[in-house]
């Protein structure tokens, strides 16, 4: 690119002159790989590795030198020789002739400077300067990253950091490159080179360590090795980015979430520096948005636009609260600096006015926001009031525009009408699933209405004593909440303070529970922005039969069976609709056990649509990855609970580990939010706290339950006895404030109580959990989750690998190590297509819900990438043969093959006998629709077989001998086909077909392949040109030699003889006559060498340690000359 002329001294030992003229010099920076680099090259390589000078200095530059001065000016530089050559040619074409006319060196210098500055300004104007563009320094570092590690252009570099890698107790100073899919390290110190490439998907552990020798370091662990990096300038930023990239890789393994860069980054202030690369800004914005959504329970697609320090005037306390203001496209949120003091969520759909307030010394830079429910929020001490007001006003205008947009012509269907006074009606019975296609099978009437009020309002059983003390206490709770609403606001814009938390811990009244669950979980926002969405899902999903709906039907009768609401079809119908609608919304989750229990409780206190959105919030935001086929989230939290138990209940931890209790309780307790192990009226209090505080409540309560039973658990001898102790304790937890009559708990009915447990008040237990374990923060849990998520997902991947290997070992002759390596390559090919794109969607190829063998599948393009493992790969015909192999292995015709199909096909070529290999070769050339038995080759298929054979031999050491043997076999087959033709059509054996199609006896020429002998090009060099006939259907090194008693006509594909055929037995018999071919098909295959070559080509986690580097120029590099 062109540069503003900058002064530089000449000559310089660090640069070598490539081209020169009287006014300009094109130079290349010396490097360690230059043939004549010498000591200077080694020095530069070391400086580049240590100081990253290569990331600051482009490898090519053009200097302008005045004839009467030793001073030069840099006018252009480039990352490649092609780029700098374009600038050089422009200078020669546009400036050289003009410069020769100047007599004064000063005028010449002025002319060159003005001309270059003009070209630079024009170039900037034409190209435009993107606000989120990367700096020149980062672009050069990206070029160096691709060059050093041979990465494709699709692999995006995120950032790079100076650090040391500890290799055998010796630090190697170099540079750590972090890209979307790889962690790479490069160091070059005085002829010793360290190069490392690790896929994020291979990392099993990532943690920060602190020792006496290394006060702050990062340890990266894979299945094979541990790597330690230290001496970072900013280790916090580096480790945070590494965690984020590892998380992206785990998401790819878990649910095929491919990374796509977000180009709609938040607007930057005009005075804000733009030194951060666009992709790094994108990842930083994602991390901030994720924390923002988690903090305020916002929808998953909400993106944080920015945040700023400010104060909020709180009318209930008559003071300003210091905190931060967060702004996004649809929400304005506030969080106090002091935790739990005050938080606020203001949806822009509720905002009516945003304006500046009167500024004063007491209240500088204020901003006033008014809402529909006549609440006004006053923010002050805003650093950039005008910029903030402009952003909020723009978002507000867009919100209003979307609100008043006319609905699309084929929009959502009308909501289903409900019929009072009934909640809904059941109109049809449930038929059994038949063998009809899924799209045609119906389970129930699709026109059923949905519930408009909670089931508790219909099925609540009142006590005879209407004004009992419990009911009076319930009324007092309702009054306390109404007073709270009057003081702190009602609805989504309510101030959420410590007082709100106190009321939640005292218990939410039954009549307000559904409303507050919606508010605290954030489900109210998604329901408000998606009107009619649930009804549309009900219409589309009800009546469809699938694996999810079948599982739902099995579990319906197990969903809170002790409650009267689910002892008839009304309650079960509502539960069926909610679960089926969610399975239709999120097929990746579908339905998971425990969802029915949680949803049934939601339906008791919330309307049907509200229960649906509560389920969405639970499964997709509050407990991510819990309710899928592999319950990864629950397994991760199981590990988190183990770590917390080790820290907070150390005297019990070893005992629980020996008994295996933690594994059992974490899944049953966490998946159902204690609803399946605790009396119903007590468990709903846990759900109250969960929706307000999040998952930390579940951990606190679990630790409290374990801590309360320490003495009894220490005396247990096995896991059954320990579970009995915990089960009895949980059954004894009661809610003395509940107005509901006690319902027998299913768990308590299964336990034979030999001794009565004292009752445990749920509110005391909750308060105790906050007192003892309230210090556990959400941030702490998230950090522990990340650490354990890597381990859990990699353990699942290892389990899948072991099951696949164990299954295919009995079907192939490969060793266990070879099958494992082949599986690694097969999986890596799938991941590579996820990284850099492919011809099919990753979702199609990877489905964790399928059996182990079918979880990873590859398409044709990926199969071609692995075809080098097959012994027959090679030559120009390799892709065509790969296509034939793929079609043969794809038995179900879905254009995908699994690992079992892949390895069985490979096993035939590596371990099959001659007959098996020839049979496979024969099958590959049988046209689709034909079978081997009773099938014969025709001429076109025979031509393709010849092409395949000649290309298979092209890279063999005995190439010429194999060509001669193939020529003999094919000639023999041609004669067999001719003889077969005589028997098939004896009356026409001397008849030919003219171009006009008329018969002409023996005067016409037979144009079939049977009239020719197939020979290799090296076996008939003395033949006359008139006797050598080339056929376009045969490979380039193959010719068809005309028999002497025929004319000179070439075979025409349109005139191929359909009576000419050969069979597999004839092919086998012919090959057996040639020892060279027999040896070729029977020789052993060195699979270890092929695997090593494949892994080397893919650079899967390759590590080149302390290798002696021999300076050599890259292929095709231009010659270098020393500067004088």
TrEMBL record:
Residues 507-694 form the Rab-GAP TBC domain. Residues 877-912 form the EF-hand domain. One of its GO terms (molecular function) is calcium ion binding. Gene3D superfamilies: EF-hand (1.10.238.10), Pleckstrin-homology domain (PH domain)/Phosphotyrosine-binding domain (PTB) (2.30.29.30), putative rabgap domain of human tbc1 domain family member 14 like domains (1.10.8.270), Ypt/Rab-GAP domain of gyp1p, domain 1 (1.10.10.750), Ypt/Rab-GAP domain of gyp1p, domain 3 (1.10.472.80). The keyword Nucleotidyltransferase does not apply. Keywords: Calcium, GTPase activation, Metal-binding, Repeat. May act as a GTPase-activating protein for Rab family protein(s). This is TBC1 domain family member 9. The gene is TBC1D9.
């Amino acid at each position: 690119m062109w540069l503003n002329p900058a002064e530089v001294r000449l000559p310089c030992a660090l640069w070598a002159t490539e081209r020169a003229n009287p006014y300009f010099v094109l130079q290349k920076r010396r490097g360690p790989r230059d043939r004549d680099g010498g000591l200077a090259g080694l020095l530069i390589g070391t400086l580049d590795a240590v100081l990253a000078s290569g990331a600051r200095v482009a490898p090519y530059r053009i200097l302008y030198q005045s004839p009467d001065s030793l001073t030069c000016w840099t006018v252009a530089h480039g990352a490649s020789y092609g780029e700098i050559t374009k600038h050089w040619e422009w200078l020669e074409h546009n400036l050289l002739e003009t410069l020769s006319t100047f007599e004064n060196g000063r005028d010449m210098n002025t002319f060159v400077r003005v001309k270059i500055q003009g070209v630079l300004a024009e170039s900037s104007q034409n190209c435009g300067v993107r606000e989120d563009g990367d700096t020149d320094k980062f672009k050069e570092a990206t070029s160096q990253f691709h060059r050093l590690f041979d990465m494709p252009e699709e692999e995006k570099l995120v950032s790079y950091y100076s650090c040391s890698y500890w290799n055998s107790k010796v630090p190697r100073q170099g540079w750590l490159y972090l890209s979307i899919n790889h962690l790479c390290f490069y160091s070059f110190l005085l002829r010793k080179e360290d190069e490392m490439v690790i896929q994020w998907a291979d990392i099993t552990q990532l943690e920060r360590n602190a020792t006496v020798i290394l006060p702050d370091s990062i340890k990266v662990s894979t299945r094979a090795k541990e790597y330690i990096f230290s001496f970072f300038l900013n280790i916090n930023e580096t480790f945070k980015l590494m965690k984020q990239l590892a998380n992206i890789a785990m998401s790819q393994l878990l649910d095929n979430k491919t990374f796509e860069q977000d180009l709609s980054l938040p607007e930057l202030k005009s005075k804000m520096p733009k030194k951060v690369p666009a992709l790094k800004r994108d990842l930083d914005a994602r991390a901030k948005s994720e924390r923002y959504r988690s903090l305020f329970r916002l929808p998953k697609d909400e993106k944080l636009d920015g945040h700023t320090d400010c104060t909020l005037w709180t009318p209930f306390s008559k003071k300003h609260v210091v905190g931060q203001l967060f702004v996004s496209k649809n929400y304005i949120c506030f969080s106090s600096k002091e935790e739990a003091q005050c938080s606020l969520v203001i949806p822009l759909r509720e905002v009516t006015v945003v304006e500046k307030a009167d500024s004063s010394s007491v209240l500088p830079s204020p901003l006033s926001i008014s809402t529909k429910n006549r609440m006004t929020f006053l923010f002050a001490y805003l650093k950039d009031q005008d910029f903030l007001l402009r952003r909020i006003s723009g978002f507000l205008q867009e919100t209003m525009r979307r609100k008043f947009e006319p609905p699309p012509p084929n929009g959502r269907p009308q909501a289903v009408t409900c019929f009072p006074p009934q909640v809904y009606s059941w109109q049809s019975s449930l038929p059994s699933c038949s063998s009809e296609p899924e799209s045609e099978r119906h389970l129930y009437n699709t026109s059923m209405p949905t519930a408009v009020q909670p089931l508790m309002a219909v099925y609540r059983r009142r006590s005879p004593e209407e004004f009992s003390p419990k009911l009076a206490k319930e009324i007092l709770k309702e009054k306390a909440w109404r007073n709270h609403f009057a003081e702190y606001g009602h609805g989504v814009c309510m101030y959420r303070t410590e007082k709100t938390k106190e009321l939640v811990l005292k218990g939410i009244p039954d009549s307000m529970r559904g409303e507050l669950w919606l508010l605290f979980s954030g489900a109210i926002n998604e329901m408000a922005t998606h009107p009619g969405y649930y009804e549309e899902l009900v219409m589309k999903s009800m009546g469809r039969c699938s694996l999810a709906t079948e599982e739902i039907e099995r579990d319906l009768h197990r969903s809170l069976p002790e409650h009267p609401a689910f002892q008839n079809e009304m309650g079960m119908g509502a539960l069926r609709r909610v679960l089926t609608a969610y399975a239709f919304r999120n097929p990746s989750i579908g339905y998971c056990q425990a969802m029915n229990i949680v949803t049934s409780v939601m339906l008791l206190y919330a309307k049907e649509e509200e229960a649906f959105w509560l389920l969405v919030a639970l499964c997709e935001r509050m407990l991510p990855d819990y309710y899928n086929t592999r319950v990864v989230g629950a397994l991760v939290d199981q590990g988190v609970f183990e770590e917390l138990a080790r820290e907070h209940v150390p005297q019990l931890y070893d005992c629980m580990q020996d008994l295996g209790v933690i594994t059992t309780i974490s899944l049953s307790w966490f998946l159902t939010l204690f609803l399946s192990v605790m009396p119903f009226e007590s468990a709903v209090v846990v759900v109250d706290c969960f929706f307000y505080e999040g998952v930390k409540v579940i951990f606190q309560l679990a630790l409290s339950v374990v801590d309360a039973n320490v003495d009894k658990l220490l005396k247990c001898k096995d896991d059954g006895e320990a579970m009995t102790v915990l089960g009895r304790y949980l059954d004894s937890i009661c809610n003395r404030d509940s107005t509901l009559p006690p319902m027998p708990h299913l768990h308590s009915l299964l336990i034979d109580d030999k001794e009565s447990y004292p009752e445990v008040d749920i509110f005391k237990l909750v308060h105790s959990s906050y007192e003892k374990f309230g210090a556990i923060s959400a941030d702490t849990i998230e950090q522990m989750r990340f650490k354990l998520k890597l381990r859990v997902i990699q353990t699942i991947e290892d389990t899948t690998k072991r099951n696949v290997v164990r299954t295919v070992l009995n079907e192939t002759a490969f060793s266990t190590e070879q099958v494992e390596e082949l599986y690694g390559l097969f999986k890596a090919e799938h991941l590579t297509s996820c990284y850099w794109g492919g011809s099919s969607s990753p979702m199609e190829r990877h489905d964790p819900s399928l059996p182990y063998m079918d979880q990873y599948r590859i398409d044709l393009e990926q199969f071609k990438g692995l075809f080098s493992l097959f012994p027959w790969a090679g030559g120009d015909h390799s892709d065509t043969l790969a296509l034939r192999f793929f079609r043969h292995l794809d038995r179900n015709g879905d254009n995908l093959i699994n690992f079992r199909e892949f390895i069985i096909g490979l096993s035939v070529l590596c371990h099959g006998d001659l007959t098996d290999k020839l049979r496979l070769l024969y099958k590959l050339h049988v046209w689709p629709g034909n079978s081997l038995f009773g099938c014969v080759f025709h001429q076109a298929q025979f031509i393709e077989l010849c092409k395949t054979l000649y290309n298979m031999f092209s890279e063999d050491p005995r190439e010429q001998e194999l060509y001669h043997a193939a020529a003999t076999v094919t000639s023999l087959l041609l004669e067999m086909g001719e003889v077969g033709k005589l028997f098939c059509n004896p009356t026409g054996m001397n008849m030919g077909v003219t171009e006009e199609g008329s018969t002409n006896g023996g005067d016409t020429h037979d144009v079939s392949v049977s009239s020719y002998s197939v020979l290799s090009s090296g076996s008939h060099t003395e033949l006359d040109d008139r006797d050598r006939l080339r056929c376009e259907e045969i490979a380039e090194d193959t010719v068809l030699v005309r028999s002497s008693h025929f004319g000179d006509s070439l075979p025409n594909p349109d005139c191929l003889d359909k009576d000419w055929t050969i069979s597999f037995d004839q092919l086998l018999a012919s090959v057996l006559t040639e020892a060279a071919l027999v040896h070729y098909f029977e020789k052993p295959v060195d699979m270890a060498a092929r695997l090593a070559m494949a892994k080397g080509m893919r650079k899967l986690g390759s590590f080149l340690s302390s290798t002696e580097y021999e300076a050599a120029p890259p292929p095709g590099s231009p010659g270098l000359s020393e500067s004088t």
